[in-house]
Write a structure and sequence with these properties.
single chain; 312 residues; two-stranded parallel sheet; 7 helices; 13 strands; 20% helix
């Protein structure tokens, strides 16, 4: 694993570049009715204005989602009272900040969201979404683990893999760390789940923050994939599937910025994870463009060109 990390170039030039043609996942046998997605953004310590259009582009490709972007900034939180029943799944590109002191949703909005998910609604938590709502117990049960946002040992144990086994670590300390944005190797831990079924055992993900020391209740959690952190010297959870009542949650810690989201594995797992969270099923095939070796990331050039820094 260390050899692969060292041989993978940090720059885009070290990745395999892939054009847009033939990259979208294909679906078979799906229901005629589209999956209704709320893409929630507007409060995030990351650049949601750059990444939300990428998420929407990715979800437009399989021709199975209809996406409505809902933008709520901190000045509008008190009036945020959506009708969750209009959606099958909520994709969170949203958080309350790494310090945990940003305005939170009204109490009745939190309760209605809990009812929505427990009743069968889906949730997708993208990267920094797991920084938010550190003191909201039910939200932390939904995402299983999180970082920052005031989280510490009171939020739950650390979770990671050691010698191919999931470890529940009660050691004290703050939650959330990451190193420099570099390529890293992802290892599937549960290849039987609908989201990861058919994916290779390992692949290389493009430049991203590798989240580590995540804490939480870990209830009803399946760790789908991990990556080795240079910060902790442990295999940290990267992709997770969680159930909450009748609801399903796909939690990906990938996706810090547009560059990270251009990695074909982010595209594929976001599409598959959103379908599973909404329906509990998987009709999408793994695209032929998905990397079959763990040596170098494969990057979507059309998404990479959406990076604001690429236009400067």
């Amino acid at each position: 694993m260390r050899k692969s990390l060292e041989s993978a170039a940090v720059a885009v030039a070290g990745a395999v570049l892939l054009g847009v043609a033939g990259t979208a996942s294909t679906a078979v046998g799906r229901a005629a009715a589209p999956i209704r997605v709320m893409l929630l953004d507007g409060a995030n310590n990351h650049d949601w204005k750059a990444t939300s259009p990428v998420i929407r582009k990715i979800l437009d490709e399989p021709d199975m989602f209809t996406t409505k972007t809902v933008t709520v900034d901190n000045s509008e939180v008190a009036q945020f009272k959506p009708d969750w029943s209009q959606f099958d799944v909520v994709v969170l590109n949203y958080n309350t900040g790494i310090t945990g002191d940003a305005p939170e949703w009204p109490a009745d909005t939190k309760r209605s969201f809990e009812r929505f998910v427990a009743g069968g609604g889906g949730v997708v938590s993208v990267h920094a979404a797991d920084n938010g709502f550190g003191k909201w117990l039910e939200f932390n049960e939904m995402i299983a683990v999180g970082g920052w946002g005031g989280r510490d040992e009171r939020s739950g144990p650390l979770w990671y893999f050691k010698k191919d086994a999931l470890v529940k670590d009660e050691a004290p300390g703050r939650a959330g760390t990451h190193g420099a944005r570099l390529p890293f190797q992802v290892t599937v831990r549960d290849g039987s789940h609908a989201i990861t079924r058919g994916l290779p055992k390992q692949w290389m993900h493009h430049n991203d923050e590798l989240y580590a020391t995540l804490r939480g209740p870990g209830k009803n959690m399946t760790v789908l994939a991990t990556a080795y952190s240079d910060q902790t010297k442990r295999d940290e959870p990267i992709l997770l599937a969680i159930t909450y009542g009748k609801g399903r949650i796909f939690h990906t810690t990938e996706g810090h910025d547009v560059v990270a989201m251009s990695s074909i594995d982010f595209v594929t797992t976001l599409q598959r994870g959103t379908e599973w969270a909404a329906t509990g099923r998987m009709t999408q095939k793994v695209p032929a463009s998905f990397p079959t070796t763990p040596d170098a990331p494969i990057v979507r050039t059309d998404i990479l060109q959406m990076d604001p820094n690429a236009r400067k």
